[in-house]
Amino acid sequence: MIALYDRTAQTLNASADSILPTLARFVFAATLMFYFWNSGLTKFDGSPFTPGVGGYAQIFPKAMEAVAYDISQMSIFHWAVVVAGTLAEFILPFLIVIGLFTRFAAFGMIGFVIVQSLTDLYGHGGIEHAETLGAWFDGLPTGTILDQRAFWVLLLVTLVLKGAGPLSVDRLLSRNR
After folding, report:
1. In Å, what is the CA distance from 158 to each residue of 14, 70, 136, 168?
2. Range of the domain at 60
3. Model confidence over 119-168: pLDDT tens digits?
4. Domain for residue 14, yes or no?
5. Full DSSP string of 91-148
6. pLDDT tens string 83-119
7. Residue 6 lies in a domain
8. Which of 33, 130, 144, 164 is buried most, with the most CB atoms less than 10 Å from its CB?
9. String of b and e for 24-59 (b: at least 16 CB within 10 Å)?
10. Domains: count for the chain
11. Is residue 12 a part of any domain in this protein?
């Protein structure tokens, strides 16, 4: 019985480097890519380089409230952060899905999710709502921040550690080197 278990484990280990990253990219495409793209679409007026009220309000909620949602009062710093964040919501998911510079894109998405979560908690007041924050080990996997985003980060860490897998632009580029 132990020998059978060991052979099965060896077979699974040998296939993990191909299956895990490919599956992780598929799950990302199926569950998160359009979430981020739709979010990015709410942040600009006409082009990603002309952020709208929605972009500033989502990323700098307290600053926008302080200026009565008048984007003309926001600084060049605010503009640059909103534009960079909006572009990241389109570019990083696209790179992950096609498997190009996957480790860097996944690492960037981890940073993005952390900043997004902190903004949701402290900028939008989610920290005051237990159902938004969630709690680990509480038997309820529905908390938006601690529960759901932990799964997002786990998926992205898989891509950082394992790369894009065999069906990727990264693999094509590495073969041509």
Report:
1. 16, 41, 21, 15
2. 21-164
3. 999 999 999 988 888 889 988 888 889 999 999 999 999 999 999 999 99
4. no
5. HHHHHHHHTSSHHHHHHHHHHHHHHHHHIIIIIS-GGG-HHHH--TTSS-TT-IIIII
6. 999 999 999 999 999 999 999 999 999 999 999 999 9
7. no
8. 164
9. bbeebeeebbeebeebbeebbeeebeebeebbbbbb
10. 1
11. no
